[in-house]
Every structure is written in C-alpha cells, then in structure tokens.
Amino acid sequence: MRIAAALLTLTAASGTFSGCVTGWDGPPPSAVRSSQRLADLMTGSFSSAAQAAADKDFLEIVLHMSPIWTDRADGPWLYVEQAAASAPGRPYRQRVYRLVDLEAGAVRSDVYTLPGDALRFAGAWTDGAKLAGLSPDQLTLRAGCSLTLRPVNAGASFVGTTEGTGCASDLRGAAYATSEATVTADRLISWDRGFDSAGRQVWGAVKGGYVFDKAPPADRGVMR
User: Fold this and answer.
1) CATH of domain 2-214
2) Domain boundaries, the chain
3) How far apart are CA 86 and CA 50, in angstroms?
4) CA distance 146 to 112
5) What is the C-alpha separation between 134 and 196, in angstroms, rounded?
6) Pairing relation of β-strands 147-152 and 140-141?
7) With contact defined as beta carbons under 8 Å apart, do 10 and 121 qualify?
8) Which of these, 34, 44, 54, 31, lies nearest to 215 by C-alpha position?
9) Which 3 state secondary structure label does DSSP give 64?
10) DSSP strand E in 4-136: where?
C-alpha cells in the first residue's frame, strides 16, 4: 500500500529535478548555450536507491532521460521515463521535455504528455525506434507546469521552480502542484508537491525531494 500510494503521488507530479551543486565535465559553460548545457546534465540514467536505503519514506525509483529530435532547431527535446526499481519495464510516468533559452542564461523546461497509451513507448530511452512517427504536434503541453531554471556555479548547475499556482492538480483534493529543481553533473533531486485552494500541502514529500544519483556514462546512442 505504501508503494502504491507513493507511486500515485509521483505520477501526478510534474516530474522535475533538484539537487546539490557540483562541477561541470563538458566544454567551458560559456561556450555552450544554456539549454544544451542543461540537456547534457539531464541526459542519462538515475536512481534513488541510496536515498531509499537510508530513509524508508522514499522509494527506489529509476529515471531515464534521452535526447530526441536532435535535428530540430526548437529544442533540445528529451524523452523522460520513471519506474519503480521493482518494475523497470512498466514506467508509471512518461513525459517529453522541451528546453527553451531565456534571457540571462535561464532555461524554461516545458512538460508534455504523450498521446494515447504512453506504455507503448516504454523503453524508448534505449530503443529510439519506439518513437518512430511521433512528432511534437502530437504532444500535449501541461500548461502552467513549466519550470524556469537559472544557472549557478558559473553555469555548471541549474536551479529552478514552477511559478505561481497555475500547474493544475486534483490528486487528493489538491488545486495545484509546485516543483522545485536543481540539476547538477551527478545528481538530480525533485520535490513535487500538491496544495489545496487554501495553500495546505495535501500530497508530496514533506522532508524534501527525491534524490536521484546519476549512473556512470554508457553508450546508449541518441534517439532521432
């Protein structure tokens, strides 16, 4: 029951990321546009196993993010998949993110849902053929759920949040959801919460966000 309830909360969340600030392993940040730096940090496989082992209030979750539509000029775009470690082949959450450059190095991360039964795309982070025929005009934007992330640590990391109360949620009596995020070279931590119309928290972690440690790099290819 604890696992089912926690996964329901995670599924309803806008699914964003936060964490500790660390170094940057790629080219000098000034040489790469902010959206691409952020996409590089977000690309990969992640796990909350260490946090779950240390604190029973958190589940072991696996997270995968891979670039898609890399030939488009209106990105970067990322396919995102989350699943319980006990059922990696049946993700409970699948999204597409689009990263948009703003002023002063900030980046807006727009969140989109997939058309129809999203499970047919499960595993697309490692098998790009599963997304064949999918295009941006088939996605649905989650209005009000975008994050604005700003560079920190000389552009090596990003910190951001949703803005206001415009990200709708009706889970457990909520009226809206919020997300706080920091993205670093080796960690993501996401803190998604739901609030009722009076501003009282009704779902989501209370102690803090889910901590996702990044797995060592692997040559998984790029989905186009």
Assistant:
1) 2.40.128.590
2) 2-214
3) 15
4) 9
5) 35
6) unpaired
7) no
8) 44
9) strand
10) 44-47, 61-68, 77-84, 93-101, 107-113
Per-residue pLDDT of the chain (224 residues; tens, 9 = 90+): 444 445 544 544 444 443 333 344 444 555 579 999 999 999 999 999 999 999 999 999 999 999 999 999 999 999 999 999 999 999 999 999 999 999 999 999 999 999 999 999 999 999 989 999 999 999 999 999 999 999 999 889 999 999 999 999 998 999 999 999 889 999 998 999 999 999 999 998 889 999 999 998 754 444 44
Provide the residue count of the chain: 224
